[in-house]
Design a protein that fits this description.
mainly alpha, about 120 residues, two-stranded antiparallel ribbon
Length: about 120
C-alpha cells in the first residue's frame, strides 16, 4: 500500500482542470480536504500526478506548435488562393483580348493538323 503522505485525493474532473497549474505549496501536493466526499474522487500518487502534469505541459507545447503550423498553412493557403484568382483573371483577360480572337483560326488549324483532323 502506498504511503498516504505521497498521495493526492481529488475528483477526476478537477484533476484535468488542475493539471495546468502547480499547487500552492509548489511540491505537487494538493489539499485533499477540499474534495473529500466527492463521488468522483480518485487517488493518484503525487509522483504520478507530477508526471501527468509534465506530460500535459508537453502536450500543450505540442498543441501550441501545431496551432502555429496550422496558422502558417492557412496563410499559405490564402496566398495560394489569391494567386489562383490572379492567374484566373489573367487567363480570362487573355482569352478576351483582341489578339486571342484574331489568332483563333490559326489555333484551330494547328489543332486540327496535330490531331489529324480530329477535334
Amino acid at each position: 500500500m502506498p504511503n498516504l503522505a505521497t498521495i493526492d485525493t481529488f475528483p477526476l474532473s478537477k484533476a484535468i482542470a488542475m493539471s495546468a497549474r502547480l499547487s500552492p505549496t509548489g511540491n505537487g501536493a494538493t489539499d485533499p480536504s477540499a474534495v473529500i466526499g466527492d463521488p468522483e474522487t480518485v487517488v493518484i500518487p503525487a509522483s504520478e500526478l507530477r508526471e501527468l502534469r509534465i506530460e500535459i505541459a508537453a502536450l500543450r507545447a505540442q498543441l501550441a506548435r501545431r496551432t502555429t503550423e496550422v496558422e502558417e498553412y492557412r496563410k499559405r493557403l490564402s496566398a495560394s488562393r489569391s494567386q489562383a484568382e490572379r492567374y484566373s483573371a489573367q487567363l480570362k483577360a487573355l482569352r478576351g483580348s483582341t489578339s486571342w480572337s484574331i489568332t483563333r483560326p490559326l489555333r484551330m488549324r494547328r489543332r486540327k493538323s496535330l490531331n489529324n483532323g480530329w477535334t
